[in-house]
Amino acid sequence: MKEQIIQLEPHDDIDSVRDKLSWARAPRVLLVFPRGGQRILASRLDLVLLQREATRRRIDLALITGDPLVIENARDLGIATFRTVEDSHKTFWRTAQAQLKLPEERPTPLDPELVEAGTRLRPADDTLPEGLRRALTTTVFSLTVLILAGLAVMLLPGATVTLSPATDQVTVSTTIIADPNISVEDMDVATGLIPARMVGVEVEGSTSVETTGTLLMPSQKARGVVLFTNRIPDQVNIPAGTVVRTSAARPVRFVTLADVTLPGQIGETVEAPAEAIEAGFEGNVPAGRINQVEGPLSSRVAVVNPEPTQGGLADEVRAVSADDMERARALLRQQLQQRAFAEMETRLLEDFEFVPLESLNVVLVYSETFSAYEGQAAERLNLAMRVVVQGVAIDERLARQVVYDRLADKVGSGFQIGADSLVFRQGEVIGIDDERRVTFIMQGAGDVHTAINAADVQQLVRARRLSEAASRLENRFLLTAPPRIDVSPGFWPWMPVLPMRITVEVEG
User: Fold this and answer.
1) Scanning 129, 133, 188, 462, which has the fewest C-beta atoms within 10 Å of its C-beta?
2) Statement: the pTM of the whole predicted model exceeds 0.70
3) pLDDT digits over 372-397, tens only?
4) What's the CA dihedral at 337, 338, 341, 347 to 10 degrees?
């Protein structure tokens, strides 16, 4: 069965250990306790919390430690413990429920007959000959000295072994798919599939753009002379303001500017000045185009313009185009998405969550109001909108778990990644499909060094000459510098016999 070894540090506490456990990718995890220094996870409560975390993540947990207090608490909770990693491979260690403590056995009362027999076996007189007594005294003294000397050899020497393991940096760049349509149970580290969630916020705003269209705006009215002809034998008074026009489908209308009178005879004529009602080029009509009289005079007089009308002008002015409207709409949508992004970060996102800006999308437009529309004269176009913007919220911890799995795959046997050296960075968004699945790049890097277990080092060098101990360390581990061994007392040429008297320090 696949297992993962996690080296604990002297500064670790229950929170940091649970965090390291969250990165485990194997169904079996070995937590290797540091040797010497500050005791960690000595509290029964710490182990209870650690056991709950492992159960929640469906992890079989074992501890590599020599701490008797930790071993005792772990045994009560049903957590497997071993002295070394090699010991864990020699036995089946699936954790069980905490074992019940057996009631203490009461001492068996002594048999009175045995007591009496023992009394009868005592010598009646404990007086020994002087020579024998001196020999016994000398022997006891010698044995005591030897025992004390042996204890001194075992207990007094101490040593500190300092190792500088070789390090290298490993980097990965992997593709991750964040899917808001799946749950945590559907997460697949191997394929980089992680769950996400949709978040939305309502925002409003306005923008203004310069118009790029053009429009001819009438600025001056055309003028000319119209000739009235009498159709009846009576005098006809034609007042100023009489309307005359062309006979085109879209007639051009003119109004007379002075009162005139037709003599009372058929065929009599009179001229009157006239001006186009609407300004612009349309008022410049050729001769003979004005041929109708509006109102009650239409049956009594005829009209015509003997000369072209002139002077109608139009100026080119800025106006709203269709492109201007689309440009204002796109610009305001972008601004509203930026505003929604800021609100999501401050109000909606949980710890470790982030929203790719590319995932933001306007899903609902409550209102859209333009200050002018296509073809209307305007120097600037204003637009106000109120919309709902949605985005995809991604838990970076899940993305990091995928990256860490890729890093671990690149680390060879006998090496481990320094937890403090891990660096993660979000890369570019590759794409977003119709189901709002976000595909993006996630990068990770970490320092890899030779895996050094303090217990292994202690067993490797205990009771060895200093030179031999150094040689064994260099042959066993890949180091950047020769191992440094400091013994106490300084003149002692041997490593301590007891492993607990050997302190192992790893630099870097």
Assistant:
1) 129
2) no
3) 999 899 999 999 999 999 999 999 99
4) -110
